[in-house]
Structures are given as C-alpha cells and as structure tokens.
Amino acid sequence: MGFTVMNIPKLTAVICFANEGEEVENTCRGIRETCGDAVDILLINDASTDGVDYETVADRYGCRYLVNEEQIGPAHARHKGASWAKTENIIFLDSHMRFYAQDWHQVINDTIDNDPNALYCTRSCPLKRGGVYDGGVTGHGASMTLEAEDFNKSLQPKWNTSKLAAGGTSYIPCVLGGNYASRREFFLGIGGYRGLHRYGGEEALVSIKTWLSGGNCQLIEDVEIGHIYRDEQGAPWSGNIKYYHFNKLATAAILFELPELEYYRAQLRALPEAAQAFKVYESRRHFVERARFLFQTIRRRPMAYYRELNDAFQRGEKITP
C-alpha cells in the first residue's frame, strides 16, 4: 500500500542521492513509519546510473521527486532543495538513514520554533551496511580543526562523542551526522551552501557562517538518527578529491581574510591533487568571490569569536552565544 501526503506539513526532508539503491526506499519508509505524512519528502536524484526505479519509490512513499540530468553534487542539490521546499522548516538527510522514535519531526519543529536563528543536528548513531549497529560511538555534534599540519586535516569537523546534556539542546561549534535542520528562511538568509561545488565540506562552511552571522549551532539531544557511514567505496560522486579540496579553499576564501587564505593555499600546494583543485578554483573564482561579498553583508561576528568558542568547546567547556 502506498503512502499519500494529504497536506503540506511544517518540515521538508531534503534527500539528495546518487546510486544509493535500496537505501533510498529504506530511508523514505523509515520517515513514513515514524512521522506518517507530517513530513514532506523531497527526493533529488543526482543523475543516478544504477538503473533503480527511484520514481516508483517516490510515488510509493508520497515524495516529491526531481531528477538532475547531469550530476551537480550534494552542495548544489541541497541548496536547490531548500529553495524548492514549501514548508517553514527543512532537514537535510542523507539517503541511508534509520529512525527510531515516533514523531521525531515534532521535536525538530518545536526546537526550531524555540530558536529559529540556528542550525541543528541530532545525535548520530553510526551504522554499518544494511543498517546494522555494531557498537560504534554515538556522535554528539562536532568542533572544528581550523588549522592542522596538512590541508587534509585543516578545516575539518571533529566528532564530539561525549554526552553534553540529558535533554533539550546544547550549543556546538559545528553540526555533523548527515541530518541538518533549520528554519528554511534562516538557511537561505545566510547563503546556505553558496560557493561550494560538487562534493564535500558543507558542514564547515554552513556551521561557521551560522555563528558568524549572529546565529548558533545546536545539538538536539532528544533525537537520535542512525546513519550508515560510507565504507572504503566512498561517496558516489565523481571527482571527489579535487572538489573536496576546492570546497575547503572556497570556504577559506568566503570566511577568512587574505593572510589566512594564503595559509590554506600554501597547504594545498603541497598535495598531489593541488593543480586540479586550483584549476577548479580558477574556473569558479567569480562564484566564490560573490559568495564572500554576499556573506560579508550579513556578517555580525569576527572569526576570532568563532575561534574562541571552538577552543572552549574542545577544552570541554560549555559554550553559549
């Protein structure tokens, strides 16, 4: 029996995927079984080539369904999904998730209502292929490694695996876990993923922008979502490495001043993929510079503010805006 969404609800689950097979259906089924038709599901098929009939899956679970004829990557697709959403709130979900509590969407909506100028993630339960839990440590949001000994480790989220509170929400420097919720208007207002290209680095950019724009990032303690983390096969998007490096450099260009940007550029030059990444950067320089200009018009806090709260969190201190 298929599911039919009768009314436009308050929360849209934006799910971008490529070649995810049965996991797309598993994720949609999980949402419907725990939330009924109270969540609008927007499936964005990023030019899958695996032959799976995803349109039938969308019909079966009452989803809106869009197909990209050419692969654009999760950053573009999710940003477009936020624009296409018809609800007040959005949650970006990966396409290989498991849901454990009934009406978890209501907790998401109530939390956003309490502070609409924020970006949220839930606790993340790590799963193996097939949705099997094998005792991995639950993620409770993240902090940021801003500078490290090499570019691969710089501008990199770092899991927080310590419980922060018994319930409610806790402030965190960075969201992580493949489930990111916010007021749609707030996400688009800070520019979302503008400036990124293809795959990688979304959490760093949007989390730091949230804090610097005057908002904050929070962990929703009362919701846990299972996430099948990728194995050695990696992500299904092509050209991952050069785009991942490009997105880090673009993040630095959007957020930092020239001396810091040059620091990251120098780190990137030491990598074997540097030439490819810089070629992508030059081809997209205009988009990066435009993203920086637009963010500067709404920026309310300096990078020093973020550094201080990130350092405090890593020392185990409770942080507040």
Structural summary, described in words:
There is one protein chain. This protein is an alpha/beta fold. It is built from eleven helices and eleven strands. It has helices at residues 22-35, 54-60, 73-84, 104-114, 184-189, 202-212, 240-255, 258-269, 274-283, 285-296, 303-314, and strands at residues 11-17, 39-46, 64-68, 89-93, 97-99, 118-127, 142-145, 156-159, 169-171, 179-183, 216-228. The strands form two sheets. Strands 1, 2, 3, 4, 5, 6, 9, 10 and 11 form a nine-stranded mixed beta sheet that branches. Strands 7-8 form a two-stranded antiparallel ribbon. Helix 6 runs parallel beside helix 7 (240-255), helix 7 (240-255) runs antiparallel to helix 8 and helix 7 (240-255) crosses helix 9. The longest helix is centred in the last third of the chain and has 16 residues, at 240-255. The model has no long low-confidence stretch (mean pLDDT 94).
Architecture blueprint of SSEs:
Layout: E1 11-17, H1 22-35, E2 39-46, H2 54-60, E3 64-68, H3 73-84, E4 89-93, E5 97-99, H4 104-114, E6 118-127, E7 142-145, E8 156-159, E9 169-171, E10 179-183, H5 184-189, H6 202-212, E11 216-228, H7 240-255, H8 258-269, H9 274-283, H10 285-296, H11 303-314
Parallel strand pairs: 1-2, 1-4, 2-3, 6-11
Antiparallel strand pairs: 4-10, 5-11, 6-10, 7-8, 9-11
Helix pairs in contact: 6-7, 7-8, 7-9, 7-10
